Amino acid sequence: MLEPIPWNHVHTLVELGAGTGVFTQMIYDLVRPDCQVAVFEKEEEMRELLKREFCGFHMFSNALELKDSLSSIGADRVDCIVSGLPFANFSQADREKIIRQVRETLREDGLFITFQYSLQMKTMLEAAFDEVSISLVPWNIPPAFVYTCK
Ligand SMILES: C[S@@+](CC[C@H](N)C(=O)[O-])C[C@H]1O[C@@H](n2cnc3c(N)ncnc32)[C@H](O)[C@@H]1O
Question: Does residue 143 sit in helix, strand or coil?
Fold first, then answer.
């Protein structure tokens, strides 16, 4: 998930659906010290744990409010968005709302990286981004697809 990120050139990064913070920890270890990081997690208990663990990262509750939340910290454009959001469980309207905001928020050469357990998001992501590459991670349980979108 994090392999394609050019860490030295990333000044603003967003994580959507951080959950237990597995990616957040790696992001914490790898980002430039001056990188602004915003993390979105809906579950309050998890968000509170993340807040305590990763001080300095901005915490928000709902990825559906991506643009407004980032505006509130003066980050209208970002270099990279990493997502663990379970798009398969969302309504089509919510999927579209999030992907539209992701596109509008990313810089011209920005990266959106997400994992899913199916190819259900392929058509939508290919319509939204110039380039989409998909790789299968067979050793994940269950095996997962990583979508890297430019
Ligand atoms: C697959 S899990 C997280 C995976 C994460 N990488 C981890 O290691 O735990 C997806 C997460 O997205 C969160 N989530 C679902 N809908 C959300 C939303 N609209 N905004 C922010 N987080 C959301 C869930 O609460 C859940 O923690």
Answer: coil
In the DSSP assignment, the letter for residue 57 is S
How many Cα atoms sit within 13 Å of 37 on the Cβ side? 25
As a CATH number, domain 7-149 is: 3.40.50.150
d(CA 15, CA 46): 14
pTM here is 0.97
Please write the tens of the pLDDT for every residue from 111-130: 999 999 999 999 999 999 99
Provide the token pair at 150: 């430019």
H or E element in which residue 101 lies: helix 92-105
Six-digit token string for 65: 């409010």
SS3 114: strand
Choose which residue among 40, 59, 85 to substitute to test ligand 1 binding: the one with the highest number of ligand atoms within 8 A of its C-beta: 85
Does residue 126's CB lie within 6 angstroms of at least one atom of ligand 1?
no
